[in-house]
Design a protein that fits this description.
By secondary structure, the protein is α/β, with parallel strands linked by helices. It is built from 13 helices and 15 strands. The protein has two domains: about 180 residues, 3-Layer(aba) Sandwich (Rossmann fold), CATH 3.40.50.2300; about 160 residues, Response regulator (Rossmann fold, 3-Layer(aba) Sandwich), CATH 3.40.50. Helix content is about 40%, strand content about 15%. The protein has a seven-stranded parallel beta sheet with strand order 12-5-4-3-1-2-15, sandwiched between helices. Strands 6, 7, 8, 9 and 10 form a five-stranded parallel beta sheet that branches. Strand 1, helix 2 and strand 2 form a beta-alpha-beta unit. It is globular and about 85 Å long. The C terminus is likely disordered.
């Protein structure tokens, strides 16, 4: 009799445990299905220092939020050809259509031009942009009801203060002539327009820029810079071709390292990676601010149920200082100690013991969700809990006509924010 009772008790316990397990699994399944989704859409790849730091800013804001966070990388910086960008845009739009995120956080201009602008005033998807060098009106965002974000602008006043400091140390008399030398990528052209539209450069005279298409043109612009200017500003150099007939791009580190060694006048980067990859100093827009501000806007839309049109479009505010301990003494530049203190405090002072040719690793930060990269597609079934495989989607993509190319640049036309 006792054995029978024990058997019954054991069976009852197992039934209760099974019911508890079913309830728990069911709870997590239901909450997972009904959780809102944020898709982080990057123009570039994970190997880009800017992307790494933008992601750090995003993760700071997101923390341990209870949302489905998905990541997709278009990788257009490594593949700047127009054909690749169009195809990458098609794939990314297929991802958006498949995942149906509540909010898309689109980073940098290619993500806007080839993806996000196609969802302007779409009632089912909210868009937050960050890292945008063009004007908001370039993508129709100035009048869109479902879009907000943060524009990326060169820190004009920070650059001006740094140049004035150097000019005083070098005994130069105003106006101090400054030349912008960079590649011919669309992002550089946007930056160049913004640089020349800025009205408060005095006592600096920003002379006509030199945007090089080939390495020979680049070398000539650098070597002859002393004829036109006292200082060089460099924003980007990832689209410098070996020659006019070639589609082969010169390795970007080779470009900036040659430039640092051969520049006849002081050189200042206006993107952080310029210093990280071969120059001595950069005064740059904060990638952390772009990521963190964009993510906070996205969270406000998800959590507070505010409309994007209720959140004003912002412009980057905080400059950052990047310094190389090894190259700074070779550059002819000298900065007050506060610059070095700022660089050290933000972990952007690159010491001699560090291998300066490589970006600092972010291995300690675990990805929130397995990211997808266009150039690293893996054959596997699509499931609702992950971003769809790009190649799998690409195989089903059909286009009746080519998507339009990048819109014409619109200088002297302020965005209606």
């Amino acid at each position: 009799m006792m054995n029978v009772q024990n058997s019954v008790v054991s069976i009852v316990k197992k039934i209760i445990m099974a019911l508890c397990l079913c309830v728990t699994v069911g709870y997590f399944f239901v909450t997972s299905v009904h959780r809102k989704t944020l898709l982080v859409l990057h123009s570039y790849g994970q190997d880009y220092a800017w992307v790494r730091d933008v992601n750090i800013g995003i993760k700071r804001a997101i923390g341990k939020s209870n949302y489905n966070i998905l990541w997709h990388y278009m990788d257009t910086k490594n593949h700047p050809e127009e054909d690749f960008k169009k195809k990458s845009g098609i794939i990314a739009r297929r991802v958006v259509d498949y995942v149906k995120p509540d909010v898309v956080l689109a980073i940098d201009d290619d993500a806007q031009n080839y993806v996000a602008k196609h969802y302007v005033n779409n009632e089912k998807i909210k868009i937050v942009f960050a890292g945008v060098n063009a004007k908001a009106s370039q993508y129709g965002y100035d009048k869109a009801k479902n879009v907000t974000g943060i524009l990326e602008r060169v820190p004009y006043e920070g650059i001006k203060a740094a140049i004035q400091t150097q000019a005083d140390l070098l005994g130069l008399k105003p106006p101090y002539k400054v030349i912008h030398i960079s590649d011919q990528s669309i992002i550089v052209k946007y930056d160049d327009i913004n640089l020349h539209e800025y009205k408060n450069w005095h006592p600096i005279n920003l002379v006509p820029s030199q945007l090089a298409g080939t390495f020979d043109e680049w070398k000539k612009a650098i070597l002859e810079s002393k004829k036109h200017a006292d200082f060089i500003l460099v924003s980007n150099y990832r689209k410098v071709y070996k020659d006019a007939k070639s589609k082969e791009i010169v390795p970007f580190k080779e470009v900036i390292q040659w430039t640092f060694k051969n520049a006849p006048i002081p050189l200042i980067g206006i993107n952080g990676f310029v210093c990280e990859e071969g120059a001595s100093v950069s005064i740059a827009t904060s990638p952390f601010e772009q990521g963190e501000t964009g993510a906070k806007m996205a969270l406000a839309i998800l959590e507070e149920k505010v409309e994007p049109s209720d959140i004003p479009i912002q412009t980057s505010t905080y400059p950052m200082v990047f310094m190389s301990e090894e190259r700074l003494p070779l550059s002819g530049l000298k900065f007050p100690q506060i610059y070095e203190a700022f660089a050290r405090a933000t972990d952007k002072f690159f010491g001699k013991v560090q291998e300066l040719s490589k970006p600092k690793s972010d291995n300690k930060e675990q990805p929130i969700q397995q990211p997808v990269n266009n150039s690293q597609a893996v054959k596997q079934p699509i499931t609702p809990t992950q971003v769809a495989n790009p190649q799998q989607i690409a195989n089903t993509a059909t286009v009746s006509k080519p998507y339009p190319p990048v819109n014409n640049i619109q200088p002297d036309r302020p965005a209606k924010l």
